[in-house]
Amino acid sequence: MAVKILIVTGDAAESLEVLYPYQRLREEGYEVHIAAPQVKKLRFVVHDFEDGFDTYTEKPGYTWPADLAFADVVTEDYAALVVPGGRAPEYLRNDPEVRRILAAFAEADKPIAQICHGPLITAAAGGLTGRRVTAYPALELDMKAAGADFEDSETVVDGTLVSARAWPDHSRWMREFLTVLRGKAPVA
C-alpha cells in the first residue's frame, strides 16, 4: 500500500505551491491527495514579482480538482501534510476542519511542509508555538504573534516542520522535506 500525503488548500492558492509538491511527491512514489473545504474544481492563482510593485501581483492560474473535503479527512491515513500559500490560507485558517487537520498532524509529530502564507493555517491551529519557521517575509509579525521564532531564510527545518518563504525556494524546500519524510515515512 502506498504512503499517503495530504495537501490542504482552496481557491486562490498559489499554483506552483500546490502543483510543485504534488508532482514532486508523486514522482518519489507517494500517493498524494488534495483536500479543500469541499470537493470541487479549485481555481489557483499565480503570484509574481514585477518591477515597480511594492508587493507581488496576482493573475489567474491553473484549475485542479480537490479529492476530498476537509470534513472527510481521516488524519491517521496520512503520513505527512503540505500547506501551500497564496491567498487561500487567509480564509482557510478560519475553517475548524482544517484547524483539526493541522492540529492532528502537529500533535502526532508527522512531517509538515508549509510555504509562503501557509503558516497562517498552522498558526491558527496552535502549531507554531516555540517553533522556528520562515514564511513570506511580510508575515514575520504574524509568525512572532503565533509564538514562533521567525527566520527570513530560504528554508527552515525544525524537527518535522519544514517551511519556506515562497515558490522561488521550492527546490530546497522539497529537498529538505523529502529528507524528513524519508526518515519518518519512506516509500516501500
Automatic annotation (TrEMBL):
<dbReference type="InterPro" id="IPR002818">
    <property type="entry name" value="DJ-1/PfpI"/>
</dbReference>
<dbReference type="GO" id="GO:0006508">
    <property type="term" value="P:proteolysis"/>
</dbReference>
<dbReference type="InterPro" id="IPR029062">
    <property type="entry name" value="Class_I_gatase-like"/>
</dbReference>
<dbReference type="Pfam" id="PF01965">
    <property type="entry name" value="DJ-1_PfpI"/>
</dbReference>
<dbReference type="InterPro" id="IPR006286">
    <property type="entry name" value="C56_PfpI-like"/>
</dbReference>
<comment type="similarity">
    <text>Belongs to the peptidase C56 family.</text>
</comment>
<keyword id="KW-0645">Protease</keyword>
<keyword id="KW-0378">Hydrolase</keyword>
<protein>
    <submittedName>
        <fullName>Protease</fullName>
    </submittedName>
</protein>
<dbReference type="GO" id="GO:0008233">
    <property type="term" value="F:peptidase activity"/>
</dbReference>
<feature type="domain" description="DJ-1/PfpI">
    <location>
        <begin position="4"/>
        <end position="178"/>
    </location>
</feature>
